[in-house]
Amino acid sequence: MDKNFLFTSESVTEGHPDKVCDLIADTILDAAIKGDPASRIACEVCATTGMVMVMGEFTTSEYIDIPKLVRGVVTSIGYDDPTVGFDGKTCAVLTAIDEQSPDIAMGVSRAEEAREGAQNPADEIGAGDQGMMFGYACNETAELMPLPVMLAHGLTRRLTEARKAGELKYLRPDGKAQVTVAYEDGRPAYVDTVVVSTQHAPDVDEATLKRDVREKIIAKVVPKNLLRKDTKIHINPTGRFVIGGPAGDTGVTGRKIIVDTYGGMCPHGGGAFSGKDPTKVDRSASYYARYVCKNIVAAGLADRVQLQVAYAIGKASPVSINIDTFGTGRVDDARILAAVNKVFDFRPYSIIRALDLRSPIYATTTNYGHFGKPGLPWERTDKVDALKKEL
After folding, report:
1. How far apart are the C-alpha atoms of 71 and 31, rounded to whole Å?
2. E strand spans, 114-218
3. Which residues pair with 233 in a beta bridge?
4. How many CA atoms lie within 13 A of 7 on its CB side?
5. Residue 205 neighbours by CB distance under 10 Å
6. Percent of the chain, pLDDT > 70?
């Protein structure tokens, strides 16, 4: 990539129909794990006008009142009025639930290594699927995340805050933001374009909405030093956004995988997060890869790093691990990878223990990105000294 370029990332509010589904799935997962930490959950949700459907494979000893959880999530987001097309109190809730396939369970409960005689407890749990996962970190922001996606998340979070606090009473739950950052010599220089689309009540005039979003949303999130006189700002560019949420567009879990990760700044293996218990490496290994990358950058070993890890279903150890610092490493990538292999254990059992992933934390991850938020265990930088010692 050329060192001078434009890069764009997007985010969506918690009222976006896909995010409604993600939050329902993660809330159900939390309920299962709270009662039975060993729960195996693969929860899929879809939502459309007047209806939510919950599907998947659940193996758990915990009773989950799915209709009650669904209605609680939907109303907490702000869909509590049938006149806007979606209401958690009255929407239909359909379920289609089965147990986890015994063929999958066999490989997860007892990994290939354990079946072949390995005695280490870390070799007991096999990966719940094949696939590749990516982690990423960079020193563009305090969170060690790419600037475009962090600004986009800030805008959508601020839309929700302004709506729920009553600052902009005409706002409704659905919304999107997009930020284009200009990079010069490989570093963020300024914001080239901002796009904000927010659902609203039909009686607010366009001029008022545009003024309020500029002053109370964009100005509160995007630092002044990143804005220029010629920064382009587009607010509700269609002119009207009254019909939104599941009434305007069917929602499905797992359709916002780039919003959930790094805004497109690094590749994506294709696996979604929400609704999946930690034996699914789509989720847990992606979290662990972020953990590794953040510690590498926090240790000053690179300005920017990407990690790929790949698994075979039913095997504990990954089939490959790759690191790329894009020429920003203080030492060779091969040496960093060797240190990573000594400090970190990528087997699912070890990942779950290291990050305490049997805890009901998943609903807190759903909105505004799974990375770059304080308090999440994969955002710790507690392996910096260990990495430095190895190098």
Report:
1. 14
2. 131-138, 171-184, 187-200
3. 194
4. 22
5. 9
6. 99
Q: Which residues make Cβ contacts (< 8 Å) with residue 216, sequence separation at least 6? A: 162, 167, 168
Q: From residue 111, give the alpha-carbon distance in Å to each of 108, 115, 278, 285, 288.
A: 6, 6, 15, 16, 19
Q: Which residue has the tokens 């979290």?
A: 287
Helices (H) and strands (E) in the chain, counts: 12, 13
Alpha helices for the chain (secondary structure H): 17-35, 66-77, 102-109, 112-115, 147-164, 206-213, 219-221, 257-260, 281-298, 333-343, 348-355, 384-390
Q: Which residue has the higher pLDDT, 158 or 110?
A: 158
How many C-beta neighbours within 10 Å does residue 320 have?
A: 9
Using the structure block, give the residue that is written with the tokens 């218990």.
Answer: 277
Q: Which residues pair with 176 in a beta bridge?
A: 12, 197
> How many Cα atoms within 13 Å fall on the side-chain side of residue 59?
13
Please tell me the distance from the alpha carbon of residue 295 to that of residue 369, in angstroms, as a whole number. Answer: 19
Query: Coil, strand or helix: which one is 76?
Result: helix
Residues forming a β-bridge with 105: none
Confidence of residue 87 (pLDDT cuts 50, 70, 90): very high
Query: How many CB atoms neighbour CB 110 within 10 A?
Result: 16
pLDDT at 228 over 90: yes
Smallest CA-to-CA distance from 25 within 47, 62, 54 is with: 54
pTM score: 0.96
Using CA atoms, how far apart are residues 61 and 54, in angstroms rounded to an integer?
A: 18
Tokens for 98, please give them. Answer: 């089965």
The neighbouring-strand residues paired with 252 are 46
**Which residues does 211 contact at the CB level (< 8 Å), separation at least 6?**
none
CA distance 109 to 36: 16
Q: How many CB atoms lie within 10 A of CB 283?
A: 25
